[in-house]
Amino acid sequence: MENPKSILITGATSGIGTALARSYAGSGTALALTGRDADRLKTVAARCAEAGAQVRIQVLDVRDRDALADWMRQVDAACPLELVIANAGVSAGTGGGGEGDDQANRIFDVNLIGVTNTIQPAISLMAPRRRGQLAIMSSLASFCGFPGAPAYCASKAAVRVWGESLRGGLHGAGLAVSVICPGYVRTPMTAVNDFPMPFLMDADRAARIIRRGLRKNKARIAFPWPLYATVMMLASLPPGLLAPLLRRLPEKVHSEDG
Ligand SMILES: NC(=O)c1ccc[n+]([C@@H]2O[C@H](COP(=O)([O-])OP(=O)(O)OC[C@H]3O[C@@H](n4cnc5c(N)ncnc54)[C@H](OP(=O)(O)O)[C@@H]3O)[C@@H](O)[C@H]2O)c1
User: Fold this and answer.
1) Which of 58, 181, 185 to mutate to test the pocket of ligand 1 (most atoms within 8 A of CB)?
2) Longest dimension (CA), the chain
3) What is the pLDDT of residues 161-213, one digit of tens each?
4) What strands lie across the sheet with 220-223, from one edge to the other?
5) For residue 52, how far is its CA from the centre of ligand 1 (angstroms)?
6) Ligand 1: which atom is nearest the Cα of residue 184?
7) The pTM of the whole model exceeds 0.85
8) Dihedral angle, C-alpha 154, 121, 208, 176, nearest 10 °
9) Is 77:238 a contact under the CB 8 Å cutoff?
């Protein structure tokens, strides 16, 4: 969408979500921002308001389907939503341990169910108007099952394929769907990584690339291209050849909980 004026972002309290909120903040823009940390949410909201945006905030867990849907209805009634970005997500690192059973389930709850909890109400609200754009945060990690982060990769693969399917299905309803697949972005999520992260970029730069991709209504916003090309090449290998290569990669964090 060329210039959305009413934008909702989940996971706006940190990293890429904060960078996106600040990038869209400006005079004439209504922002609806959510996250779980009230203090960080207020800080981000204040900076966006200083930039001229009209800002609504709500402390929410994206796993709380009813609370999220209720809030989205309220926001939409006040200012019809034009762009919804389902960005909130966790990894093994931000969960405070490795991908033990509990953390693996939590990753699926937040990264997959949290995304459906965001996108489904958005579709219901936008479809009668036949206007709106949905953005789903996946990852370059969605293309290969990296042994150090199985639930994370699987959750990101699920939302990518879901979003790419929705794009075709919702085209006739006048809604646009884009899936975002970043490589390594400098945020609290990657700050815990103690291995080299090729082409690591700042969150502000990632936000600019995402915004440009959304403006062009790209189906898949995947970046940086050298890392995208590498994972696509890896993903094209037969599993029997790929698995031994991936086994050499480092784990995201050492597991503390199993
Ligand atoms: N950084 C990267 O390299 C990278 C690469 C590819 C994809 N991504 C994806 O980009 C998205 C943003 O990641 P980031 O790097 O910006 O990480 P981050 O700085 O850790 O931010 C994650 C955001 O998600 C929110 N969140 C987490 N669990 C939540 C829950 N249950 N309910 C509501 N909000 C929740 C957090 O809010 P609170 O802190 O307030 O709980 C925070 O605002 C994620 O989906 C991530 O998987 C990141």
Assistant:
1) 185
2) 54
3) 999 999 999 999 999 999 999 999 999 999 988 888 999 999 999 999 999 99
4) 54-59, 30-35, 6-10, 83-86, 132-137, 175-182, 220-223
5) 25
6) 3
7) yes
8) 90
9) no
Phi, psi at 134, each rounded to 5°: -120, 135
Which distant-in-sequence residues (6+ apart) come within 8 Å of 32 by Cβ? 6, 7, 8, 9, 55, 56, 57, 58, 71, 72, 75, 79, 81
205 in helix, strand or coil? helix
Please give the Cα distance from 110 to 62 (Å, whole number): 7
Q: Do 8 and 83 meet the contact criterion of CB atoms below 8 Å apart?
A: yes
Decide: 132 and 126 in contact? Cβ < 8 Å: yes
Q: In 79-185, where does DSSP find H-type helix?
A: 101-108, 114-126, 150-171
Catalytic residues: 152
The encoded tokens of residue 167 equal 């794009």
Sort strands 30-35 and 54-59 into parallel, antiparallel or unpaired. Answer: parallel
Are residues 215 and 115 in contact, defined by beta-carbon separation less than 8 angstroms? Answer: no
Strand, coil or helix: what is 92? coil
pLDDT tens per residue, range 106-142: 999 999 999 999 999 999 999 999 999 999 999 999 9
Give the residue, out of 9, 14, 62, 144, with the most ligand 1 atoms within 8 A of its beta carbon, to mutate for a pocket test.
Answer: 14
